[in-house]
Amino acid sequence: MTGHAHRLSGLIEVLEENLSERQILFRLEKNAVLTHEEHDRMVLDKGIYLKVSQVEYDPFSNMIHWIRD
């Protein structure tokens, strides 16, 4: 929605995806680069990672929203 997004570039293998929990388990075969418009790039070492989605609470609507990034 904001045009901002984390982007991961490299050799990525998705091992498991849990859509209801919005989680992705993935493996990096080599180092990969994570970029975002609001911070410096980060280099991730090869290995296995779990990507989880954040939520935010809106006290005015009393609702919880998933953060899409």
Helix-strand blueprint:
Blueprint: E1 7-9, E2 12-18, E3 23-28, E4 32-36, E5 39-44, E6 47-52, E7 55-58, E8 63-66
Antiparallel strand pairs: 1-4, 2-3, 3-6, 4-5, 7-8
Mean pLDDT: 84
Gross morphology is: flat
Question: How many structurally independent domains?
Answer: 1
Which class best fits the helix and strand makeup? mainly beta
Count the beta strands. Answer: 8
Count of helices? 0
Strands of the largest sheet, in order across it?
1-4-5
Radius of gyration: 14 Å
* Helix-strand pattern: EEEEEEEE
Which blocks of ≥5 consecutive residues have pLDDT under 50?
A: none
Biggest beta sheet attributes: 3 strands, antiparallel
Helix amount, in percent?
Answer: under 10%
Q: End-to-end distance, in Å?
A: 9 Å
The fraction of residues in strands falls at: over 45%
Supply the key terms.
three-stranded antiparallel β-sheet
Summarize the structure.
The chain has 69 residues and is an all-beta fold. The chain has no helices and 8 strands.
